[in-house]
User: Fold this.
Amino acid sequence: MRTLIIGAAGMIGRKLAARLPKDDLILHDVVPFDGASVVSDLSAPGEAEKLIARRPELIFHLAAVVSGEAEADFDKGYRVNLDGTRELFEAIRKANYKPRVVFTSSIAVFGAPFPEAIGDEFLNAPLTSYGTQKAIGELLLSDYSRRGFFDGIGLRLPTICVRPGKPNKAASGFFSGIIREPLAGQEAVLPVPETVRHWFASPRAAIGFLLHAAKLDTEKLGARRNLSMPGVSATVGEQIEALRKVAGEKTAGLIRREPDATIMRIVEGWPRNFDTRRALALGFRADAAFEDIIRIHIEDEVQKSSAPQPGRG
Amino acid sequence: MRTLIIGAAGMIGRKLAARLPKDDLILHDVVPFDGASVVSDLSAPGEAEKLIARRPELIFHLAAVVSGEAEADFDKGYRVNLDGTRELFEAIRKANYKPRVVFTSSIAVFGAPFPEAIGDEFLNAPLTSYGTQKAIGELLLSDYSRRGFFDGIGLRLPTICVRPGKPNKAASGFFSGIIREPLAGQEAVLPVPETVRHWFASPRAAIGFLLHAAKLDTEKLGARRNLSMPGVSATVGEQIEALRKVAGEKTAGLIRREPDATIMRIVEGWPRNFDTRRALALGFRADAAFEDIIRIHIEDEVQKSSAPQPGRG
Assistant:
């Protein structure tokens, strides 16, 4: 099946591409990357049409300007995240075939105040431009699917943890940092209290969601094409306790508390817990516990990137 | 206060204009009409900027391609209802002042299945392109307000009843027709069973919502700028009973039952009842009962448009 990944240079895009047959795979991003088939700006006139010209039957639309950048650069966020998505959907409509479209949305479509757990019928009231753009993408996806222009499904991914790579300045960065850095023998800064609760999925679980969405019977979705994905709800304290169990006291001791009021204020507006019964009934599967999220990081990132590994104990 | 009404040629626009001081009122529509200040297509390049050039401090954005037309003409619906709204919001942002913007949304942002009464935290899952476009307008309104580009408030109007004028082909037309036509001594067709329940406001109540929104302290809204307006939930049977009470058995006898499976299927997807506690707490007031909706129609339309009237009995 001809498959197109838009946003293939990103962490999720690369991991997804590695799981798909290479023979008819089109990899797209706006930035050049190793293995790229097409490099272009999706929101520029005519580019979406070119991308769809080979009529891929399966399209993963993962591309987005991330939260912090969409907040800092209003025009760029709307151009890429809204116009780019709409250009893609329009190009598919005009090509007049009906591919499966898997769209990555985000829990940023939700904004406080929240119930104890966010259910499948809770309103989208985003508190960022990024969340607004994703919520609009969801609405377009549902309408284009309802009209029969394509067969879409939108997945609201939990915060991906442990995100591999270098620390970054995203407000959410510490959720991964407090696991990743200590496992690498480095100190990590924790800017919020241990009582802060958040919603997580491993990169491996996220790829599982995307692959499951690609082959799901969308008749079962009805008109509501967007789903909050299952995840693990954990407090920072529970994250640290899991790290202690998996990697020992010394590793967990590399976390330094350094409260940051600005980050705390941002994080307070974020979802803490979900009731994802629709996604679970449709067969989407989360990590079992935060300890597993740490073990997956060790297996997929720490062991693979190091010199010859000892077997797991 | 300089006030702009966009969509001023429509029924609500005309009634609203009649309630506002004439001296600094800009009336806009895409169709020429008596009293128009500007006639232009809001979605055409540069037109929104021209409309905002005089920097109206209060803007009512009522313009929309209606539900049936937006469903029949996909491109036109998105161009007018989404692009037109976005052009307006962008023009305001670029003019760099902070007017009050009152946007009319619709209960069409909701789609079945519904709870017994739709609360303030129920998801927007529209089942029409019109509802999708309104839901996107709501998201943009919230984000532009959050960013401080304007001070917006969106009102999800109930179905306006009794809509004055001629019968039309809208699927919802019968809700007004079964009151309006009998009161004019004419037969009306009822295409659905009397058990069908729906959500109503009189034109007078709708104008009241708009005027209240124009002067509301928006600090009280927080980040959630869109509100379902209060209304009267009534079954068709209750509508007919109210007509009987207000205008007598002979008038109510002018309703002819003629079931229409297509209309029934459309109406089944529509909201029946709401719990609008946020709007009520903010001082928005609905009609007290369906009988009052009929009396308002008689006072505002039947008596005003007829020859010299006897006083109300």
Summary: Chain A touches chain B at residues 74, 111, 115, 120-127, 129, 132, 135-136, 139-140, 142-143, 146-147, 223-224 (CB under 8 Å). The mean pLDDT of chain A is 94. Chain A has two domains: 3-158+203-230, 173-196+233-273+287-305.
